[in-house]
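User: Please fill in residues for this 563-position structure.
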């Protein structure tokens, strides 16, 4: 029987007792395929590629499967890893793990003899509760969400499944920001849970069975207060058959679900079960990265397996005012180093641009994508630098000038034109095909890319009458005017704006019916006369000038008939 106050010895395994000794050091410059083969021969699981750099066997195997066998293994290694002595206490090691380190290296007698995997599923974290952040008196929105989350936890317990709040809600809750989006993860049948929740809150449920997800909308509390939309997902792991492909999914525990996410700040969860409500789960150091104001991918191949994460990274960096961490910058270089992604659809690439344009900091996100070289995913020949940076600034000014008259689709076209106009020959057409803009729309945009710079150059000519400006601007699809504006001088832009605002709408006071009544025969001559009358009006002519012009043309026509 244990005696009160008696000191009992505590067994501390130290770092040496926690580590995996199956590590193998290789020389600098070792390629992925060679490193993987060396690990297999040695029966090791971690490849050491530098004093504080290592990569797991599973990461090397995935890279080799995706055709990256010839890449330097150091390009996808975890860098700047902590190195601890073999006799370092377990408490000190767990502090490192709590901070989210992916691997810790263990040194003994001057050399690395093992590695501790910080993301092994058995590691316990402190049971920090965020319930007080949710239940803030006097904040009706937070109180409503807290009520909803407690209800979800009770329903999950009644159904025998664990339910967690995850992703953006946890991130923004820890930042004390809002509004909070409600994303739930269910260790079980997510759609079935969503149906039960919809019944309880008298809402409508939409099921996406193929993805194990559902959404509940238009729900209400017992007092009738409206509830926010709730997105429900089955906890899952994802497997990518090829870089850029949509993943295949299968049910998994919560820890696997968090580890398949995009960034550490989005890979945290909060328990909703009544007995553990508010307990934070952070297996990758999301809190640490929030405190340090940085966006960090969960693994070195993150952007290779799904390049659309690059666009999401730019949105988060811009929206939150964070920075992309050093590991993320290395992952960027690995993903954008001349690689093509045939499995990545153009629709997904365009959808990411559309999402950026809907955000207040969307233009900063686009500038980041330019700086990172992400538009090379449209075509490897896309050139960035100062000219493209200026065209993106011009695109923003153009859309501001167009105001409410520009739809989301118009804004998307303007950004695509800004990126592609002025690029080397062939780049624009290839990129439009890559983005899935073929057919008539693709042809119009391709024509705009070709003709826009020529139109801009023509409108620099001094002394052009308004009719000549309008005639030049009318000579092609409407997108040509937008492409021209993006590369035009200030004077040419004023002429294009005049055309968009007034010139294209100009009409003569006389119409076809009036001309026929005045004796002008139907046919090509009638159309040419209408165009001439419109040009006369553009150049300042009055209704009387139009009438005199018609009289002259009628007289000329009759003279020609009598001859």
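Assistant: Residues filled in for all 563 positions:
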């Amino acid at each position: 029987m244990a005696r009160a106050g008696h000191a009992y010895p505590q067994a501390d395994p130290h770092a040496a007792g926690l580590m995996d000794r199956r590590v193998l050091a290789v020389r600098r410059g070792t390629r992925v395929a060679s490193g993987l083969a060396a690990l297999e021969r040695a029966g090791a699981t971690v490849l050491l590629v530098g004093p504080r750099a290592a990569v797991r066997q599973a990461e090397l195997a995935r890279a080799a499967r995706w055709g990256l066998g010839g890449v330097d293994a150091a390009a996808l290694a975890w860098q700047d890893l902590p190195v601890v002595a073999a006799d370092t206490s377990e408490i000190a090691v767990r502090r490192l793990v709590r901070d989210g380190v992916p691997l810790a290296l263990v040194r003994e007698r001057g050399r690395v003899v093992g590695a501790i995997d910080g993301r092994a599923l058995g590691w316990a974290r402190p049971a920090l509760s965020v319930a007080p952040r949710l239940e803030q008196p006097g904040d009706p929105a937070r109180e409503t969400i807290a009520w909803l989350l407690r209800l979800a936890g009770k329903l999950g317990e009644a159904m025998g499944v664990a339910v967690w709040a995850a992703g953006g809600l946890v991130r923004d809750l820890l930042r004390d920001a809002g509004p909070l989006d409600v994303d739930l993860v269910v260790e079980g049948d997510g759609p079935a849970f969503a149906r039960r929740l919809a019944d309880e809150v008298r809402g409508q449920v939409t099921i996406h069975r193929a993805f194990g997800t559902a959404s509940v909308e238009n729900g209400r509390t017992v007092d009738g207060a409206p509830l926010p939309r709730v997105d429900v997902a089955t906890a899952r792991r994802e497997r990518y058959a090829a870089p850029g492909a949509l993943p295949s999914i299968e049910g998994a525990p919560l820890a696997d679900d968090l580890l398949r996410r995009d960034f550490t700040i989005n890979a945290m969860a909060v328990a909703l079960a009544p007995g553990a409500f508010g307990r934070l789960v952070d297996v990758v150091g999301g809190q640490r990265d929030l405190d340090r104001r940085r966006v960090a991918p969960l693994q070195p191949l993150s952007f290779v397996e799904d390049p659309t994460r690059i666009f999401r990274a730019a949105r988060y960096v811009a929206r939150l005012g964070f920075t992309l961490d050093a590991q993320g910058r290395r992952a960027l270089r690995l993903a954008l180093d001349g690689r093509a992604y045939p499995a990545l659809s153009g629709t997904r690439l365009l959808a990411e641009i559309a999402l950026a344009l809907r955000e207040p900091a969307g233009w900063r996100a686009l500038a980041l994508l330019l700086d990172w070289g992400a538009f090379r995913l449209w075509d490897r020949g896309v050139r960035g630098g100062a000219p493209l940076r200026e065209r993106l600034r011009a695109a923003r000014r153009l859309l501001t000038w167009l105001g409410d008259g520009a739809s989301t689709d118009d804004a998307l076209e303007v950004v695509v034109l800004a990126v592609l106009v002025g690029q080397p020959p062939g780049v624009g057409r290839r990129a439009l095909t890559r983005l899935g803009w073929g057919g008539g729309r693709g042809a119009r945009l391709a024509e705009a890319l070709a003709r826009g710079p020529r139109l801009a150059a023509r409108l620099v000519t001094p002394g052009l009458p308004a009719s000549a400006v309008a005639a030049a601007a009318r000579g092609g699809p409407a997108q040509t005017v937008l492409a021209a504006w993006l590369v035009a001088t200030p004077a040419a832009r004023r002429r294009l704006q005049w055309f968009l605002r007034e010139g294209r709408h100009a009409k003569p006071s006389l119409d076809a019916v009036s001309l026929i009544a005045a004796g002008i025969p139907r046919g090509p001559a009638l159309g040419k006369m209408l165009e001439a009358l419109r040009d006369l009006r553009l150049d300042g002519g009055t209704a009387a000038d139009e009438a005199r012009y018609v009289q002259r043309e009628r007289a000329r026509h009759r003279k020609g008939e009598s001859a």
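For context: The mean pLDDT is 90.
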